[in-house]
Amino acid sequence: MKKIAVLTSGGDSPGMNAAIRAVLRSGHHHDLEVYGIYDGFKGLCEGNIRLLSREDVSRIINRGGTVLGSARYKPFLEEEVQKLGADRLKSLGIEGLVVIGGDGSFKGALALSKLGIKTIGLPGTIDNDIASTDYSIGFYTALQTIVDSVDKLRDTSFSHHRCSVVEVMGRYCGDLAVHAGIAVGSEFIITPETGFDETKTLQAVQTSYEHNKRHAIVVVTERITDVKALAESITKNTQYEARATVLGHVQRGGSPSAYDRVLATEMGEHAVSLLVNNLGNRVVGIRGIDIIDYGVEEALEMKKTVSNKRYGLVGKLLR
Ligand code: F6P
Fold this sequence. Notes:
By secondary structure, the chain is α/β, with parallel strands linked by helices. The protein folds into two domains: about 180 residues, 3-Layer(aba) Sandwich (Rossmann fold), CATH 3.40.50; about 110 residues, Rossmann fold (3-Layer(aba) Sandwich), CATH 3.40.50. Helices cover about 45% and strands about 20% of the residues.
């Protein structure tokens, strides 16, 4: 293999740049030419592809977002469009591709593998919803952003005897909410894994009041319930006045944490090693402290395991 390419796809995540840098630097270490594909699978199909130099990845290890740009590109679900993408790579003599993104991006990578391109997926998403890895690139940075924001909310909630209802991202995965809930000492967490029980939520908030707490914090994963309506219900049915805050896309930005930079660098290097060994159709992950890889199909079939102990922790610390 002489030429490889790298793209970022789906929602961006802090640390993607560190992964791009690691792919380029490891590629050069193995005397490969490394191409950057701009704006994900969309850019691939449109031929938005450029040979990267060492300078292109200078001073990006600390930058949030992705210098290559990203996109959610539905047309890539269609076989004809996938073929167009594979042909673009073949016409440039590119045999290997590193795809940094979430589960959806891995499906795109799988399609290209079937069309003869050796692809390696790296988990890049703040949601941490990928079963084939303990942690995805960006998760811990987003978590810290949430914790910093909730710490600020606590200052004002405390001053006003209020309850803060905070909606965090995660799509269908509660990892951001449960980790944030523990880290900020919240009264209650609501995630896809716990489900939403309004009565229990109100009871937990009221219990906090009865323990003379001046403020309460409820952390909720997006898409479960309307946080504004929940705040109104808390105001009506408990002794706290409540306010809802949707943290939104600030969670995706910012300079990656040291952990995410290290993880991205290790994963990027691992991806290139696989390609150099002529392996494709694999995704990289971390289990414990080990960087590992699985076949893409196997990885996509895995179900994420949920730590019930971790989910139970917030309730246990309420009193
Ligand atoms: O997958 C990352 C994520 O930030 C999710 O947490 C969120 O549901 C989604 O992307 C938002 O997507 P978009 O930026 O396309 O609105």
